[in-house]
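Intended use. Records like the one below are meant for learning the mapping from a protein sequence to its folded structure. Do not use them to infer anything beyond what is encoded.
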Amino acid sequence: IKPNDSKDPFRFSSRRVVGQLRACGVLETVRISADGYPSRLSYADFFTRYSILVPNGTKDGADSKQNSCLLLASVFKDRENYQLGRTKAFLRSGAVAMLERERTRRLETAVVRIQALARGASVRSSFRRARFSALRAQSHARGILFRRELTQRTDTIGTQYRLLFAYRGRETQRQIFLHSLVRFQATVRRVLLQRELHRRKVLESVVIIQKHLRGYLARDQFARVKRGVTLLQACVRRRAAEKRFREMKANRRVKRERESVDKNWGLEKKIFQLQRRLSAKEFEINSYNKHTEKRRNGLERSFSVRYTRPCVPSNEDCASLKRELDLERKQRALDYTLHRQQVEQLRLTHRREVEELMRELGELKSARRKLSGSSMEFEIVHKEYLGHNTERR
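Structure written out for the chain above:
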């Protein structure tokens, strides 16, 4: 950059310099830099330099980035003067000047405050030393004046001794009075302590008596309650045992009756079998009677055919036919007699078995009636037991 066209010393042409700067693009660069954020500081450096501007609400444990954000927000009301990056803070040129001005003002204020405190401390220290010196001087002066006045008043040694003895006597009386006062206070305190100790002993004795009395009453009440509960449990258990015994007795009776019923059911089954056998025998008898009747009818038909033929039989034929007829009649009479005897015997046997079965059936019916009565009694006892359990619950 040439300061002038003639290159003369100590002569500066501002228009020429501005033209050169404009031609070189320096002004445009400066304008662009001013429009941007030329000042770029890391958060650590920024906070180290401008930490004095940190507001009171800053967190102590926060990092430099958070503190820097709070600092910039408290100093600049407009966000256009700065921008926040990831590791750096970007500032305009005027913003840095403002921060420096504010920092200088804070430092001047702090220096003035420190100077004021130091000067105040120095002045107070000087004042205390001067005051202590004045007090000592006054004390010595007063002592000198008092001794001088005492010397003037006590012209003789006797007067001085009398004053000394009088002072010592007053001091001795004062000590005696203080000693008596201390002994009186000690006596009063001892009496008060003895009374307090006696009161505490009486209170402890009363508490111990109350404790033992309450324990005795509680144990007595617990014993009464325990006896009552034990008696109640015994009564309840006795009633439960009685009911359980009645139930066991009823169950055993029902079991015996069921066994008898099972036995009678066996008898009924036997009766049914005998009835079936009787029916089978009657069917056999009827079938035998039908067979006999059929055979007799066949013989009669054959006899009638044989004796009703138109031919004339001979005497030998008639005799043989008569013999056959007699034999057939005898055989039929014999068969009929045997069959009749068998039927009568079978009927008697069946009648006896039927009578025996009817007698057993009567016994079975009576056992059934007893079983139905015992079942009704068992149902009544069971209902009573259930009602008693419901009331107890």
